[in-house]
Amino acid sequence: MAALMRYIAADPKVQERLRSELNHAFDGPIEDMDATTLLKLPYLDACVQEALRMVPPVAAGPPRWNKDVDTQVLDKVIPAGTTAASPNYAIFRDPRNFFDPESFLPDRWLGGVSPHNIEAYVPFCFGPGVCIGKPVALYNMKFVLRQAVHVFTHSLRYQVVNRQPDQSI
């Protein structure tokens, strides 16, 4: 949530576009907010997904064990009995997976930006090991962000460029 707020505060255009989408969908008090509508807002979802890509909630994907067989990955051999995991941060910042990976670009989740390797994006793991709290976490982020953007205009005390490696969090 902190990363999401940081990126939105650093980019007034993103903040205004998000506010416009939210205000169009919800014009009344927060008590009248419809959860179904909240979960269907494309730019809100794109902002949340992009923040999770920029600052993953977990350091690495689930560990994999290759039992009693050597395994070749690209030009490297992983010896039998080795447990390995891939760091999400490196995968999410790899230019082979995401265009301009150091930049906060919510539009990448709305299509038309390439490369955009959705299979490389697993902030909550995947398959049987997927985080059981994923739907609740995503909903809560959207719920809090809706109210925060509706009520307040956010800015950073110091100018931060979203293209530079993030040291503000």
Characterize this entry briefly:
This protein has 169 residues and is mainly alpha-helical. The chain is built from 6 helices and 4 strands, in the order ααααββββαα.
What does this entry look like structurally?
It is a single chain. It is built from six helices and four strands. The mean pLDDT is 86. It has 169 residues and is mostly helical.
List the helices and strands and how they pair.
Elements: H1 2-10, H2 12-25, H3 35-38, H4 42-54, E1 64-65, E2 71-73, E3 76-78, E4 83-84, H5 88-92, H6 134-151
Antiparallel strand pairs: 1-4, 2-3
Task: Supply database-style keywords.
single chain; mainly alpha; two-stranded antiparallel sheet; 6 helices
Rg over CA atoms: 18 Å
Element pattern in H and E: HHHHEEEEHH
Overall geometry comes to: elongated
Instruction: Please state the oligomeric state of the protein chains shown.
Output: single chain
Look at the structure and give the mean pLDDT: 86
Number of strands: 4
Strand order of the largest sheet: 1-4
Kindly report how far apart the N and C termini lie. 11 Å
List segments where confidence is low: pLDDT < 50 over at least 5 consecutive residues.
none
Number of helices: 6
The percentage helix is 25-40%
Portion in beta strands: 5-15%
The SS-based structural class is mainly alpha
Largest sheet: 2 strands, antiparallel
